[in-house]
Amino acid sequence: MDKYRVYFTGVGGQGTLLATMVLAEAAIRAGHQVLASEVHGMAQRGGVVESTVVIGDIKSPIISDGEADVLLGFEPVETYRAMRKCSADSVVISNTVPVMPYSVAIGKGSYPEIEKLFAFIQSRVKKFLTLNAQALAEQAGSLLSANVVMVGALAKSGALPVSRQAFEETIRTKTKAAFVEANLRALDLGFEAL
Questions:
Q1: Three-state DSSP state, 128
Q2: Are 44 and 82 in contact (CB under 8 A)?
Q3: CA max distance for the chain
Q4: Which domain holds residue 116?
Q5: Which of 10, 73, 94, 155 is placed for a possible disulfide with 14 were both Cys, Cβ 3.0 to 4.6 Å?
Q6: Each residue of 48-79: pLDDT tens digit?
């Protein structure tokens, strides 16, 4: 069996951990051995959230520097910061919409130029894909479903041996009933965006 390491990063409130659970459950549904892990950090204050899903015969959910097959970044600066986990063979999928840190919001700092961050990432990985997950989530009917838009893009990327159907069934059975329809639309829009 092949081995796959997926590293998720974002900030608190973006639904990174739900996306992690959806991938882990979908991979299990697809018949794979799966381990998942999460680090909340300062998530409740808008801080970084990191999590991992490893698929295959892997004994630890820890992804060392240079080991990620896929990096799913929910925020541009956090995607850039997590590049240490990637290699020249990695696939990186990033949301293009920034979440401004408190220091930037109060005028005590500045947000880096996203184009420069993305140019750096593009030059160092095999495949780099971007999308505006917030706009697609709004189109799906729920701004809260931007995380599922990102999962849809992951499903379309072809980087993992997990079918779209496995993701759909996981969303139907493992997410809150009130959000299932919006999440399914979000998955479709993320899938179609690439």
A1: strand
A2: no
A3: 51
A4: 4-131+154-166
A5: 10
A6: 899 999 999 999 999 999 999 999 999 999 99
